[in-house]
Amino acid sequence: MADIPTLLLAVVALACWTIVLLRATRHPFGIVSPIALLSAGVLIFYVVPAIYWLLRPWPYVISSYANGLWLVELGATVQAIPFLILGPLFQRGQKPGAALTLAKPKSLSRLWLLLIPTAVGFAWRFYMMSMGSQARLLASAPTFFGSEELGAFLVITTTYYPVCYLCLFAAGARTQRGVGIVLWAVDGILCVFLLQRFLILAFVFRSLVVMRLMNIKLQAKYAVALALVVAATLSVVGEGSSAAKQFLQGGEQYLAPAQVLQTLSYSVGTYSSSETSRGLTSNAENPLLRVLDDSFLRFYDARSEAAVMVGVPSLVPYANGSTFVQVLYSLVPRFLWPEKPTIRTIHEFTHIAMGAEAAGGLNPLGTIGEFYANFGFVGMALCGAVTFLMAQALQSRLARTRIVSPLTVLMYPIAAYLLIAANYHFTERLVFTVHLLLFGALARLLIGSMRKPARRNAPVAPEPGYLSPMPTL
């Protein structure tokens, strides 16, 4: 039987954040505006999956931590209050549905320099695959020339290479767009080849954000079809990750293309069978229901957050703001301070609360959870105030934007990911924001500034070889 009080809290949170989301779409950036993305993140990771699991029996051998779910839903509701009350004050006079115009750089030839970080990113991804990152076969931290610090640096920096080929496609001339779309297709295939759900989701999300910046809008039927394909792909790839080891031959650490196809074929067969004893897979006999269950489980990060919040302060003592000090640490390069604390130490909260269950991977604490772990119920109010002020500042700044520069195309997909990632703890989002600002400064030096149109909000006149934004699909 459903926990009625918790279900009511979740429904209230659903209503609050849906209102905030719909209001935010009046922004020129529409559904990918800062507050819209932040709202979507809370709904995707904490509210909608919680309602699903409150209405459906839990079909897994692991604990659901449903006894702490009311704290998560209360925190989500409290976080929405500043957005509901103060948000409309900032939206007065905002023109809904204003079209964006994609500007081009002053020097189109300098966009070719984006192939340098793109090449480095692809090279690192292939190197990591050879070391066992495919299907997460690599259990240890990545190293480069024996250095974990250098390996960690490359992991962070090479996460930015996809936006480089996307910028070529969005802001380049005809040939540059062709190169960009080819690299995009290759990277998409590679994400599936690597058998990692996170990479596939990140690839789809970045692509959708850039499409919106280019004024490419998916029709509803295509959006639904894409969602179904992504959900099915994630379920099959997730099952394949656990089965990949049996297809390795000899001392291999990675799967060849034929072995990847074998793994995916095995996964499809597993989901099509009535066998239900497959570890962290739903025990539902119906394959479609099993896919639905597993999809909602992947986004059910309220589970680990509930485990921590219900354990504060009995199992997990109040941190009293100590986790936020990590933001200051991020300003110091690790090669200057090899013993610098890592932001992954914040995940110790979930390790303490969940015990052996947390040993198998990362169980995110989330933004609401981190504030609560630091300050209790007062932290819920602080979470709402702080996230509103930061998101609204960016929302207001971008509300004046009608001309999208190449630098925006490079930076905003990463910023959009940090906005929607409500399952990241707040410190992690701030640290990655610092990294993003450094990346933006380097990118500005690399490609220069955009060529401004002759008058405000006027379309940029195309030059030979330059394609205008694409129409609605």
Structural commentary:
Helices cover 59% and strands 1% of the residues. It is mainly alpha-helical. It has one domain (4-447). Strands 1-2 form a two-stranded parallel sheet.
Outline:
Helix content is 59%, strand content 1%. It is mainly α.
Indicate the structural class: mainly alpha
SSE succession: HHHEHHHHHHHHHHHHHEHH
Number of helices: 18
What strand line-up does the widest sheet have?
A: 1-2
Total strands: the figure is: 2
Instruction: Please tell me how large the radius of gyration is.
Output: 23 Å
Number of domains: 1
Strand content: under 5%
Q: Write down the overall geometry.
A: globular
Largest sheet: 2 strands, parallel
End-to-end gap: 44 Å
Average pLDDT rating: 82
**Helical percentage:** 55-70%
Low-confidence stretches: 452-473
Q: Top keywords for this entry?
A:
473 residues, globular, disordered C terminus
